[in-house]
Please model this.
Amino acid sequence: MKRFGSLGIWLALCVEMLAAPGAMAQWTTPNPAVEFEKRADRLEVRQKDGVLRLEVNADDVLHVTYRPVGPAAPQRTWDEVVVKKDWPAVAFEVTSDEKTITLKTAKMKAVIERMSGALAYFDAEGKLLTTDSYRSLTPVEVAGEKALHAEVYFDIYGSHEGFYGLGQHQAGVWNYRGETVDLSQENTNIAVPLLISTNGYGIFWNNAARSRVNNRFIHKLYLSAEVADQMDYYFIAGPEPDQIIGRYRQLTGEVPLFGRWAYGFWQCKNKYQSQAELEGVAARYRAEHIPVDNIVQDWFWWVTMGEMKWNPHYPDPQGMIDTLHNEHFHLMVSIWPYFRPGSTVYDDFDKKGWFVAKTQTAGFHPLGQALYDATNPEARKQYWANAKAALFDIGVDAWWLDTDEPETEGREDNILIGNNLHAGPGVRYANVFPVFHAGGVSDGQRAASDKKRVFILSRSAYAGSQRYGVTAWSGDVLCDWITFARQIPAGLNYAISGMPYWTTDIGGFISGGDLNDPKFRELFVRWFQFGAFSPIFRVHGTRTPDENELWSYGPDAQKILVDYDTLRYRLMPYIYSQAWQVTSNHGTLMRPLVMDWRNDVQAQNTGDEYMFGPAILVSPVYTEGATSRTVYLPKATWYDFWTGQKQEGGTRIQADAPLSKLPLFVRAGSIIPMGPAMEWTTEKPADPIELRVYPGADGDFTLYEDENDGYAYEKGAHATIPLHWDDAAKTLTIGAREGSFPGMLAERTFRVVLVSASHGVGIGESASAEATVSYKGEKIASSF
Model:
């Protein structure tokens, strides 16, 4: 036997202990199982120090709670985050022996060790996923609130297991293995308590208080909540991230579809100062034929914050919006949850007790301001009524809910801590403000009209925000290369948290944005290229001089910017169809590589590339002066989007990346529908459509269409066309159209292009096609 010495023996023993389910429980105080009972939908286990409940929501979802022993033990009754409370009955069995109690469904197994109380999770094949080895509830007092500190410890076994999700955070970290993440809302940090593991499971931590995920000791995962009445989480057996995300959305709410216009280009800056300026910028975009659908009015368009009354620089808001609509623009307006003294609206909310806190220190206004209580349903209704009268009724199309963490600048603690909400003590609900705030606006608009889909841009979010038509953005970030680089893993972790819509301030927001500096122009171009392949495509920022339009960056940069803007619009049939997959099939548009190559260790640890939909691999360039970048191509056959050259995957390559080129690769077997160039998303019918087929593997795509706005799609007013490429037979089948909607093209043309070197490449329409197909809704096949 090899001699290790005392340190080696200790390490060897540790490895053996870590390899056994429940072994780490030996290092904690035993909490043995005393008795158990199987009920219709759950297993209840009474332990020495508490009651463990495993509620079977589905054959791959367990709702796990642990509460103190005794009838006087507090139990949480409020839960607005989880919306699915009723699940169909699931067959499961409970067995026991002298050492264990086992709950088994068709897809997973949970085994409770009687002696320690440890709870091990296995998949249907018997693979150990993880072990909830110890649970603790410790009495605490936080901000004057007596409650419990809840903590659960999980054993981690595999050295390559990766952790992802948890919302959006700005440390530049992609894989959270070995890291600690605080789940607390801040400007630029968004708490979403869904953790996804490459070992094939997810954990949704169902607690709205400030929480922490700690994996600093990489064999142990600690989940804790600052304040709780019980420990509460959902265990989801995937194994794939898409399956876990699907269950998360069932629990917390499905994702509605935005209007087609929302997937186009958004023009914004800090800030347009007048009606004349806003109208002038819109007119110039149309005069220069630059594709754009949306323009944004940022803060202080009002007289007094909270009043929603246009200031004198906007003498005719109705006329302004009519002008923008006539020029095929949509308008988004910034509204805040803060109110300042000096208006009847402030007085009304104050009189009714609808403010959480009135303070001199929150934010930056010396006269003080007050945060309204979005957890109060009456306050939410009045907030929406004010926005409706001032904005929605005159045609405003979208909502920018700024500072809705709520804003904490000027103090370290969230302003909710130490204050009471309608829902209860703020310390218990510190993370949920953005859900209620967005919910009030979304529900209000849905009740007012079914003709215009809700779009909300929010600086914060939480579990459930996705059901209200929310796109989060990464907050008030700096204008530099390091910050830009950090946006990529921040956005990817947000996406794998089950939150499909995200964007950044292209170019950054705070300081450093000098339009006359060639280095900043380079940064803006690279950030813009990334933005063109983000779910929502929007520029914003504070610039010197005060401009941020595409022509502001000089003719050389403008050409590149307009090229990527044009490409975004050519890809609109692809993007809108993938948006439908988000809504109808729990899809994710911005896909970190680990979602499609979960067991590939290189993919697990690549946080600066991603798939945009199922076909396009995007590799942002985030290094100043770079003319190439290293790209990891996962195992597949890939085509360079720009050249059509093929490359086998499972390797790293050095991709060419001059300033005009964002490295893009397309997976073999992909079908990408590309529409005609447009200046706005509904300028003309998407016809003809160029179907770029990338041979080398079988492939499928579903083309989706509807009326482009309104909620008739939810009642079946939409159509899909299935596309299938049979690589062996070299045959493309355009299937029979399913469904219909008013205004649908009865006949259309598809130009089929089989991509090869220098053919079917780049932004423009292909000069020639292998076939031109006249399609009338019936199945048709073309062989090549």
